Structure formats: structure tokens, C-alpha cells
């Protein structure tokens, strides 16, 4: 199943480029122009499905009766179709997305689907950390600076995951989870750097998930970001 806010023609262009001209055969259901996050939050009466003809919306549908390629729509009617396809009253859905606003929060909040956040800030964990990088003066004459990995600390904003708050007097700064970090552990089942990181795992692999009973770093796979791992436990970080 593929759900994208892109229009049908653009979806075909990108899908063919990334996955090959027969990419649509990989999905039983393709939904374009989904207009997320409204796809998850709107009622069926507010957002109907439409058939497509030559990439143009044609007939409005009162419900979905079979797999296919559709436009717009809503999560309620989609879930009813999944019930028919799986012959289950409550089929489990695992939804992958790279946007907290358009994908992860609405899918979790409005449909209670399991959510996997694809988070590019987790990429490059195997690369050197800023404090481990070799000084420029020790590098060879023709060796330029390495490309900055996505998981490096921003010189302006600091860590994507934790921040420090100044305290009065001579007290040490307090560490707090950033807004982004708290949203990840609240609305994501797990967070991964890319699809490749889990592609070769067995289908019955059991992930440690984010939950109220686990550490706020439990759901990061395959590695916790080093700015979080270096804190050892949640007890060092103040929840606000």
C-alpha cells in the first residue's frame, strides 16, 4: 500500500525512477493526492475517494470495494477495505513515513496505526563523532574536510534530540529532551534512519518499541543517536 500527497502523474514519475517502470505492481493499493494529514483526520463525508482516468480524477466513490489506484480519500474507508482484504475485524497496520506533521502524528492519533518514523538525523551513526574527528592540521596535504554527516551537531541549533537549559547561579546546565525528541517517542512505534536498515531482517523480528514503560530511547533502531546514548539513562535528562 502506498499513500502519497503527490498527484498521480508525479507519483508515476518518481516511482518509475526510484523503483522501476513496474513499481505499481509492488502495491495492492495506491492512493495519490491524499492531502495528508487530512487523509487521516477528516471524516469520509469530508474527503471521498475518486477513481482516476489518465491521471485525472473522475468518479466520486461512496466507499472502496477493491484494491486499485485512487485519489484523495480517507483512512476510515481505507481501513474498511483492509478488513475485507484480510478477512479480519481489526487488521494491524504499520505505516512508514518521514514527516511527523503529515505522517506519524496523524496516523497514530486518528487511526492508532503502528508508525515507523524514517529519520534522516539517525543516518551516519557509523561515521566519526565530531569530538573524534582528526584535527585539520594533522590531515594530509591533499585530504580535505569530510562531508558533514547528517547526525552531526548543528553549530547554531545544537542536538536535534537534547538541549541544555541554563540554571541560575553556578549550577550546572540541565539537559532536556527537545520538542522533536519528545514527539518521536510519543507518536512513533520505532524510528529508523532508512528502509535499508531493516530490509534484510526476518519478518518475525521483534523490535523494542517506544512506550511509557520503556526508556525514551528504546525505539531507535539500529542505534540510539550518540547524543542520547552518551547520557546513559533518562534520569540525567529532565522531562518538561
What does this structure look like?
Belongs to the 5'(3')-deoxyribonucleotidase family. Keywords: Acetylation, Hydrolase, Magnesium, Metal-binding. The chain is α/β, with parallel strands linked by helices and 240 residues long. The chain has a domain at 2-91: Rossmann fold (3-Layer(aba) Sandwich). The protein has 6 helices and 11 strands. β8 (162-165) and β9 (174-177) form a beta hairpin. The longest helix is centred in the N-terminal third of the chain and has 12 residues, at 8-19.
What's the arrangement of secondary structure elements?
Layout: E1 2-3, H1 8-19, E2 29-32, H2 38-41, E3 49-53, E4 56-61, E5 68-72, H3 75-86, E6 94-97, H4 100-111, E7 114-118, E8 162-165, E9 174-177, H5 179-187, E10 190-192, H6 226-229, E11 237-238
Parallel strand pairs: 1-2, 2-5, 6-7, 7-10, 9-11
Antiparallel strand pairs: 3-4, 3-5, 8-9
Helix content: 10-25%
Strand content: 15-25%
**Major β-sheet strand ordering:** 1-2-5-3-4
Number of strands: 11
In the CATH hierarchy, what is the architecture of the domain at 2-91 at level 2?
A: 3-Layer(aba) Sandwich
Rg over CA atoms, rounded to whole Å, is 22 Å
Largest sheet: 5 strands, mixed
Task: Based on the model shown, name its key terms.
Rossmann fold; alpha/beta; 18% strand; 6 helices; 240 residues; 3-stranded parallel sheet; 5-stranded mixed sheet
Amino acid at each position: 500500500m502506498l499513500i502519497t500527497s503527490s498527484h498521480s502523474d508525479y507519483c508515476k514519475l518518481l516511482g518509475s525512477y526510484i523503483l522501476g517502470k513496474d513499481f505499481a505492481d509492488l502495491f495492492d493499493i495506491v492512493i495519490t493526492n491524499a492531502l495528508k494529514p487530512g487523509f487521516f483526520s477528516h471524516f469520509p463525508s469530508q474527503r471521498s475517494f475518486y477513481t482516476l482516468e489518465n491521471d485525472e480524477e473522475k468518479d466520486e466513490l461512496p466507499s472502496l470495494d477493491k484494491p486499485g489506484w485512487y485519489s484523495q480519500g480517507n483512512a476510515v474507508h481505507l481501513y474498511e477495505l483492509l478488513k475485507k482484504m484480510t478477512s479480519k475485524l481489526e487488521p494491524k497496520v504499520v505505516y512508514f513515513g518521514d514527516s511527523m506533521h503529515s505522517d506519524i502524528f496523524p496516523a497514530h492519533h486518528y487511526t492508532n496505526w503502528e508508525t515507523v518514523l524514517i529519520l534522516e538525523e539517525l543516518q551516519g551513526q557509523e561515521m566519526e563523532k565530531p569530538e573524534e574527528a582528526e584535527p585539520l592540521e594533522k590531515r594530509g596535504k591533499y585530504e580535505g574536510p569530510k562531508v558533514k554527516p547528517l547526525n552531526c551537531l548543528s553549530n547554531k541549533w545544537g542536538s536535534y534530540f537534547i538541549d541544555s537549559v541554563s540554571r541560575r547561579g553556578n549550577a550546572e546546565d540541565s539537559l532536556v529532551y527537545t520538542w522533536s525528541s519528545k514527539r518521536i517517542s510519543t507518536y512513533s512505534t520505532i524510528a529508523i534512519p532508512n528502509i535499508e536498515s531493516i530490509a534484510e531482517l526476518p519478518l518475525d523480528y521483534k523490535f523494542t518499541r517506544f512506550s511509557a514503560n520503556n526508556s525514551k530511547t528504546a525505539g531507535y533502531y539500529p542505534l540510539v543517536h550518540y547524543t542520547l546514548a552518551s547520557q546513559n539513562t533518562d534520569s540525567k535528562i529532565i522531562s518538561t
